[in-house]
Amino acid sequence: MTIRQTSVTASGSIGRANNKSSGYMPAKTKHPDPDGPADRRRITAGEIWENPVTGECAKLLEAPWENREGRAVAELSALVGARVVGEHMHPSITERFTPLEGELTVKLNGQTSIVRPGETAVVSPGVWHDWWNATNQNIRVRVEITPGERFVQLIETLFGLARLGYTDSKGMPHPLQLALVAREFSDIMVFRTPPLWLQRMIFGAMAPIARWRGYRATYPQLSRTTLAPRA
Q1: What pLDDT score was predicted for residue 24?
Q2: Per residue in 135-185, pLDDT tens?
Q3: What are the two backbone dihedrals, phi and then psi, of residue 41, each rounded to the nearest 5 degrees?
Q4: 140 class by beta-carbon count within 10 Å (0-12 exposed, 13-18 middle, 19+ buried)
């Protein structure tokens, strides 16, 4: 569900958006306090999770611990030109995208198609995929992730880092932070490039340096998914 804000040029190609209006302001420290106070507010349906850097906005409709399948359901608002950060796959989860308003362009294993309201794109585990909003209007998409708890924790971490100012102006965490997040959530999301063996080698070398410098894969301030009480 992680997307970046982009712009559509006159030729129709998609490029990165100007972030000057995003309100981006970097934090004064390199990372959140790994021993900071935990956020234990209960997660409830109807909450809106927003990434102020990329413009991502997701309304939580159903938490994964509220149903037998462990499914997370959200309504995603994708602005004009918005797209996922890069082609990727999920080793152990299934995604379903159902447009509610507007058309979503989806690429599955190299095949690109347009998904319209009433239609659903299903992304099975291990399938390389990408998606974007190639239209000239904002769209709303129902997204279902099964099982969803670990994915929700990943989104909570990335959105939280952006909200607190621990990303660059494009929404990407510091490379040392990214190394720990990528290793922690490798069961959830893997990017196609660089090759997986190279990702493992680079992130494996960076991880001990990151931990020595105080970075953590997750932080108590951004871990309601695992720390907050549940109904």
Answers
A1: 64
A2: 999 999 999 999 999 999 999 999 999 999 999 887 789 999 999 999 999
A3: -65, 135
A4: middle
Residue 212: which residues within 8 A CB-CB, separation 6 or more? none
- Closest listed residue to residue 166, CA positions, set 174, 155, 175, 176: 174
> What is the model's pLDDT at position 9?
31
Alpha carbon distance 6, 54 (integer Å): 9
Would you say 177 and 33 are in contact if contact means Cβ atoms under 8 Å apart?
Answer: no
146 beta partners: 94
Please, what is the angle between helix 196-212 and helix 175-184, to 10°? 110
List, in sequence order, every residue forming a beta bridge with 59; answer none if it has no partner.
Answer: 48, 75
C-alpha 145 chain-centroid distance:
12
Contact yes or no for 142/73 (Cβ under 8 A): yes
Angle in degrees, 0-180, between the axes of helices 149-163 and 175-184, rounded to the nearest 10? 170
